[in-house]
Amino acid sequence: MRAIRQILLGLACGVASFASAGATPALPWMNDAQAWRASASDQVKAAVRVNAADQTLCLDYDFQGNSGYAVASRELPLAWPTHPNLRFWVKGTGGANHLQLKWVDASQENVWWAQWPNFKPSAQWQAFKVLPHQLEFAWGPTPDRRLTRTQRLEWVVAAGKAGGKGSVCVAALTLAQGEAPKDSALLSLQRVGQDLVGAFDEERDLSGLRVRWPETVPRQPYTVQVAEPIGAPETAGSSAPRTMPRSAVPHRPPRWRTVQTVSHAQGPIDWLWLGQVSTRSLRLQAMGGGALPEGLTIETVPAGATTAWKTQDDAWKALAAQSPRGSWPRAYVSEQNYWTLVGLPGQGDRSSLLSEDGAVELGVHAPSIEPLLRLRYVDGRERWVSWADVQMAHAWGEGLAALPEVRWRHSDFSLDIEAFATPAQGQTQGHARYRFEAQPGAALQGADLWLFARPLQVNPPQQFLGQPGGFVGLHQVQANTRQMQLNGQWHLRLWPQAQGVALVAAQHGLGPVQARQLGEKVNAQSPDGTLQAVWFIPNVHQHPLVHLNWRQGPQWPASVQGAESSDALRAQAIGLARAVASPEPQLRVPAAPEAFTQSVQAALSHMLRSSHRVALQPGTRAYARTWVRDGAMMASALVRTGHHRLAREFVEWYEPYLFESGKVPCCVDARGRDPVTENDSHGQFIFAVAQVWRYRAPGDGVDRVWLEKRWKSIRKVLAWMDHLRTQAERPVADKYQHLRAAMLGLVPASISHEGYSAFPVHAYWDNFWTLRGYRDALHLAQVLGDAGAEREIARALSQFSHDLRESLSHTMRLHGLDTLPGSVELGDFDPTSSTVVLDPAQATHLLPPGSLHTTFRRYLDDLRARAHNQKAWREMTPYELRSVGALARMGEAQAAWEAMDFFLSLQRPAPWRQWAEVVMREPRAVQFLGDMPHAWIASDFLRAALDLFWYERESESGQWTAVLGAGWPASWWDDGRVALQGLRTLWGELRIDLQPLADGWQLRLTGLPPKTAPSVRLTLPAQGKDWQLLDAQGQLAPSNKQPHGQGWEQALPGAPDAQGVWTVRVRRATTP
């Protein structure tokens, strides 16, 4: 190998320095046992072992049933080369967990890392090479994300799929100045025996290959192999620096390693993703013996270059760019795609996805089924039709039982694709129905449906969090004309029977299949997971209904025997969904947008279908875990819509995950509780308990005994909150020392609602949630008659309220603000998080005068500018839906509806009535979207929607009144018809009816208890200043209107009668 310039690391001057040498030594500090420190997250064990003789570092970890991390770290001042080339060796024990190598700068705020998700160490040494593009900026406030200088090195094992305990040992860590990424190269192949071999003049880092076959040569299966670089063994007493651990040095010649297996070569070019390999030689070897033909050529795709294939999806994106449109899903041709959830309530882990274009993802991280049509015309023409050749329409229907539908519209036909789920022995069984109809006058002789089983998720490649989207290996296919088994895990059945089944390479895409490829059955395996199978269902113009059903696990789904059987399954899905989701709010407001009323019904469905048993989750892919923040706010929406049992069960499920200290984990998943500090979590847990208690209903299992069982945990959480806010010493960066007074008495800095992931801050979101926790705990202490706790909590609440009020004043003064800040350190404008002041904290009495209205006036100006395209914007998060409820509570009904209309316009596809976590201004701009639908956002919408009709207002002293009609705009009063049934309140279930009369309206509230009904204040629009209220006997109520925002408030006269009906007339002002 040609010698290249190496960068050697030295520590003599305190900062690593570099010099030229012919070899790269292992870093000498690996065996410095005193320099290394072990640390771990809450209730995780970590220990460091250094073997000086072998110069290896070992990190032992034990997660003890928790999520979290174990760290081995040391100080290491380092100036980085321009093209770092990092190498090391790893071995260990234990299951699949995330291995991370982190570099932290001198500020301790900025972090760079390389990571290997769910890495399972081998008992034998494995070589790693890290290229510059793999050393990524992880987080921190710096605007300059280049890796230039760092201060500390950390080896981290974070809980992955396995958790458990084990060890990771690292040796021979070297750092060298590498070369800039090479360009693509054409590699000449020479025959060596029966193989084809090619060599580079130096080591190359490769991410992929394009193998081109001569046109006339038959394709055959083959493997791609690389020659692994092997270091020379050392002699005893050698003073040369070691480049690999002594135990890893082999005593044998270099070997060939298979990096790709091509089981179904179909050419003319095989697009082969390699991951990342470093080699000087490649070998192509025929499978099953024999020789590969001469004439094959290879074009390399270098690793580290901008055109590198970092994933299998990147390789297919490159292929898709050269393929006919429609061959690949939108995500592979630089277009954002959209999808929705298909599944049963409580079985989000078994849910499917339906794409806007009609592909169905069978389950979480599962292959998808995608349709293709062949039209046969009377004049002999044929036309293949994919999603790219039709106009797309969508339907959702009415109520919680609605089934998402995709409708292909074409001048010659329509194809309706509907997906739903039914239960099957405690599991979920998925269904897709395809209904074809020829257009009148179309010159069609026939139409055939082809259903492709593809190694692609509907969840697209840019979805990188949680369960990543894109490619999912399809390693095994067994199929006949009636049923198909994928990866031994997914079992599919088809009605009517297909006429043929074929196996095609995944790189074939979605395209024509030749009759000669069809057979009665296929059975194939592929190590690289790039299989693709297709069913051929002819003459769908004569037999228009096709039913596909599937199931995950060892059992086959039930057989569909015909159209009647298919219809019965569909009816079962509708009936079950209605039964499980009942009760649901029944809403009738003719003057309201249809999108609004449909979204109220859909939002509850999205929450229920996203949950995993009783674990409330914001999603099923990216966010398939439970945050107490999301769960508490979803539980609040659930109790207001009558789903008390699920809210109660959520609280009971989450409670055992509290830490012994009383710290409430931010989130919980299959790995256990997450130790990341988010200081809103403690108040949120107490709030969730209090909401379940306040909205309890007969038969829901919530009584005094239930509350007493929760009280011990609440006391522990309160003790932890007291500890946090009274910490005398807390680290404050030099640049924020002038703000220290504003931090006194607050809970410490955290990443909060994860809006501060760059670096923790003293977030007011955290502190208002802490306030809510104290207020709710005080109420629960009063309920239980715990006088001692009541006094303690009252003192803490009083002091904390004082500190919070003072902090806000300090922060606004020091930053020169007239709007509410999101945090002490940044003084940032974050109106979405500021909504917490109104709900659930209900703490406007702590705000500097005028700050709330100034905040939301500025927010409204920004929203209007975006809504009317007067401001450039790229993306937004529909968490902003909380502002609708906030504006309504401020008496700004018209403004609340401006915001609501804007957010409703951002639903995609609109008929599915859903939001993703991220919404792009340009609908086809490719972006990580979070989950779709996003259940926490669904709860934000639902709570805001209910606030428009009725909400409960808490005074500083803890007294409750009700506010009616806060979000009824003038147009609703003009129409005069409003009806809401099934709303749960602090005083029981409520029905609201507004009907027009000749001189005004009749308002009727049904369900409030006659003896304990609350004071109810009716919100009137701006023109209602002179309207009059009359009780059920026609007596005129005293005019006690008070201005509120842009409207007026007045107490309802009278009270509910013995049947719980409260009747009031609202009379327009008469003209003298």
Write up this protein:
By secondary structure, this protein is of the alpha+beta class. Among the domains are: 28-177, Jelly Rolls (Sandwich); 186-236 and 249-310, Jelly Rolls (Sandwich), CATH 2.60.120; 336-577, Beta-galactosidase, Chain A, domain 5, CATH 2.70.98.10; 960-1067, Sandwich (Maltose phosphorylase, domain 3). It has 16 helices and 51 strands. A 9-stranded antiparallel beta sheet has the order 24-25-26-27-35-31-30-29-33. Residues 1-23, 231-244 and 246-251 have low confidence and may be disordered.
Q: Which descriptors would you attach to this protein?
A:
alpha+beta, disordered N terminus, Jelly Rolls, 9-stranded antiparallel β-sheet, globular, 1072 residues, 8-stranded antiparallel β-sheet, Beta-galactosidase, Chain A, domain 5
Count of beta strands: 51
CATH topology of the domain at 336-577: Beta-galactosidase, Chain A, domain 5
State the helicity in percent bands: 10-25%
CA radius of gyration is 32 Å
Shape: globular
* Uncertain residue ranges: 1-23, 231-244, 246-251
